[in-house]
Design a protein that fits this description.
The complex is a heterodimer of chains A (about 300) and B (about 325). With about 300 residues, chain A is α+β, with helices and mostly antiparallel strands. In chain A, about 30% of the residues lie in helices and about 25% in strands. Chain A has helices at about 25-45, 70-85, 105-115, 125-135, 140-150, 250-260, 275-280, 285-295, and strands spanning about 10, 15-20, 50-55, 55-60, 90-100, 150-155, 165, 190-195, 200, 210-215, 240-245, 270-275. The two termini of chain A are about 35 Å apart. Chain B is mostly beta strands. Helices cover about 10% and strands about 30% of the residues of chain B. Chain B has three helices and 20 strands. In chain B, the strands form four sheets. Chain B has a seven-stranded mixed beta barrel. Chain B is elongated. Classes of the chains: A alpha+beta (about 300), B mainly beta (about 325). The interface between A and B is large, with 52 and 54 residues.
């Protein structure tokens, strides 16, 4: 995996700067984008309004009345050079477990409502289709492949705290599925979907184009900050978080749902240092190390 | 002091200057869609630019006041009525306890604003009183107003009201049905075909009814993207990119057909390529359009965009002087 030598800089009007590390998705591009975002936040320049690290790019909003665009570009280019020179690429982060009821009745009902005119394969389900395009035997096999490796939150956005997650496994083993031909107008809240190479958690009910796999009982956006994991902020995920999905059946889904309702639910999680070189050299071995950290929690 | 909502209108919600610093979590900036009109309304009633007000869409609400109330209506031209009698728009009004504020039919644009001396006094969420309905947060209980709501008004700070009690001509914008919007090409414009680029910047585009605070969709000849091999992670359609952040005001063209301009409640990111961005000085124009408005997107460079911004800042400075 080699990145373009330099990022592509482009202005989004007079208030936004786009820095595209690479047009295609990779762990390396995500790492560079996040590191530049962190470096820029550390510099605390006057006139920076928002720093939004994305999958393989970075969007910066600035106030041109306080910060000249030339000054911003110079600073970001400097940071880019620094980040690319850094020999140690690690990230202090955490691994979080998310329970998923795969092939649940809520998303299945929605799947059935949006077939003809929306989906590539109106007959069958999103799970059947996802298994087939990945050359897998059946939906059960697809589900296993989805939860057996951890995923990295590579971007947060779209609407209220929605995370995009990138699978921590070599590209040839990553699951990849087309998005719906035409987006659905409805998706149950807390649906787990997959589109392109990304998993997404739909934070709120609404439109969506990802194939629906299942549903989680655990919230990721809590504007009233009722649950302990939201004491600091109403959004759960940060870019760089690592997620392990754990399949659950109806009984456990209901009992977690009750804990959430009672305001007592806590995500199982553990702090980890994510080291890019180790993740790239020995993906399977490194994933085992990450999961051990979680299992010790 | 409070406003009692007798009928809510089509969509009336609390807005202010916006919520900044949370875009990276998918929480949009929000805020009044026509910032200049909102500032004018606040100015006329003696508020600062920070006070929250009501943004109305097409069909206005009917409101009863419970105390002597100083207010002003600005933005899209509409007949303003007090107890059924027409009164002046873009001017300071004084209502007595029990008076009812109502509206006739909109004569252009889509958004008008009601500012009240003291401002709408709902709690700040993440530094703003703007309503974000998708996240059910901010504004009045995180939603548009409904009949029966009683909306609190803050204490008016100004002892003496400003001399400006009606807006002079230079503060009243145009609601023309032919609009030129200045854009800066960029972002992913290299993915457009020559024809696509030419259509975007030279053709006439018509605003469709699919237009709200999130985004506005335009109809026209289309603007095709190059049919190239797509990068890993981007998705199969030539208009797809690896999901990235969206600039407010950026213009995406899903499937190369209808351009969509993202506005203040827009999604913060996604997988559609954008060919350029509306300059900050022209963002208010979209609140002054209605379906059928003809738009041309005129490309400018950064220097022109900054000159336009300086010109707008000077107008704002005159408003507050």
């Amino acid at each position: 995996m080699t990145l373009p030598e330099h990022a592509r800089y482009s202005w989004g009007g007079d208030e936004f700067l786009l820095v595209e590390i690479a047009p295609d998705m990779s762990l390396e591009a995500n790492f560079v984008s996040n590191s530049i975002a962190e470096g820029l936040a550390d510099r605390a320049l006057d006139g920076i309004v928002d720093i939004c690290p994305a999958n393989a790019s970075l969007l910066i909003r600035f106030d041109p009345d306080e910060l000249a665009y030339t000054e911003l570009e110079r600073t970001v280019r400097e940071l880019e050079t620094e980040v690319r020179k850094a020999t140690v690429q690690e990230l202090e982060t955490r691994i979080v477990e998310v329970p998923v009821w795969y092939n649940d009745p809520y998303t299945s009902e929605t799947v059935a409502r949006f077939r003809e005119g929306f989906h590539q394969r109106p007959e069958g389900t999103d799970l059947d289709y996802s298994a087939e395009v990945n050359g897998l035997a059946n939906a059960g096999e697809f589900i296993r492949r989805h939860h057996e490796t951890p995923w990295l939150v590579s971007m947060v956005g779209f609407v209220s705290g929605l995370p995009f997650l990138f699978q921590l496994t070599p590209r040839e083993r990553q699951l990849e599925v087309p998005k719906y031909l035409s987006p659905r107008t409805d998706t149950p809240p807390l649906t787990i979907g997959i589109g392109g190479c990304f998993t997404a958690h739909y934070s709120v009910r609404g439109a969506g184009g990802y194939q629906m796999l299942g549903i989680t009982p655990t919230p990721i956006f809590d504007p009233e900050q009722k649950l302990p994991d939201f004491a600091d902020f109403m959004v759960l995920f940060r870019t760089g978080d690592i997620v392990k999905y754990r399949p659950v059946e109806e009984e456990e889904y209901r009992s977690i749902e009750a804990e959430v309702e009672a305001g007592t639910y806590r995500y199982r999680q553990a702090p980890v240092t994510f080291e890019l070189s180790k993740a790239l050299e020995d993906p399977d071995g490194y994933n085992r190390t990450l999961l051990e950290a979680l299992n010790g929690a | 002091m409070a406003l009692e909502i007798l009928t809510p209108g089509l969509s009336t919600a609390v807005q202010d200057r916006g919520r900044f610093g949370y875009y990276r979590y998918g929480i949009p900036q929000g805020g009044s869609m026509d910032q200049f009109a909102a500032m004018l309304a606040n100015r006329l009633v003696g508020n600062t630019a920070e006070e929250a007000l009501l943004e109305c869409t097409y069909l206005g609400p009917k409101i009863r006041v419970d105390a002597r109330t100083i207010l002003a209506v600005t933005g899209a031209p509409v007949e303003v009525q007090v107890n059924g009698t027409p009164v002046e728009q873009n001017a300071r009004l004084e209502l007595q306890p029990g008076d009812e504020l109502g509206f006739g039919v909109l004569k252009g644009g889509s958004k008008f604003f009601i500012a009240v001396a003291g401002g709408i006094d709902v709690p700040q969420v993440l530094g703003s009183r703007s309503t974000y309905p998708i996240g059910k947060m901010g504004g009045f209980e995180g939603r548009a107003l409904q009949a029966g709501d009683v909306v609190p008004v803050g204490d008016a700070a100004a002892e003496t009201l400003p001399r400006l009690d009606r807006a002079p001509e230079e503060f009243i914008p145009s609601f023309d049905r032919d609009v030129t919007v200045r854009i800066m090409l960029g972002l992913y414009d290299h993915k457009l075909t020559e024809e696509g680029l030419q259509n975007l910047t030279e053709a006439e585009w018509t605003l469709t009814p699919v237009a709200d605070r999130m985004g506005l969709r335009f109809d026209g000849p289309g603007a095709p993207w190059k049919d190239e091999e797509q990068p890993f992670g981007a998705g199969q359609d030539p208009s797809n990119i690896t999901d990235a952040g969206y600039a407010v005001g950026s213009i995406q063209i899903p499937g190369g057909t209808q351009p969509i301009v993202l506005h203040r409640d827009g999604v913060s990111g996604g997988g559609y390529a954008q060919a350029g961005t509306v300059i900050s000085a022209d963002m208010d124009l979209f609140a002054r359009m209605s379906p059928g408005t003809k738009v041309r997107f005129r490309p400018v460079d950064m220097d022109e965009a900054n000159a336009a911004r300086a010109e707008r800042n000077a107008l704002i400075a005159r408003l507050w002087s």
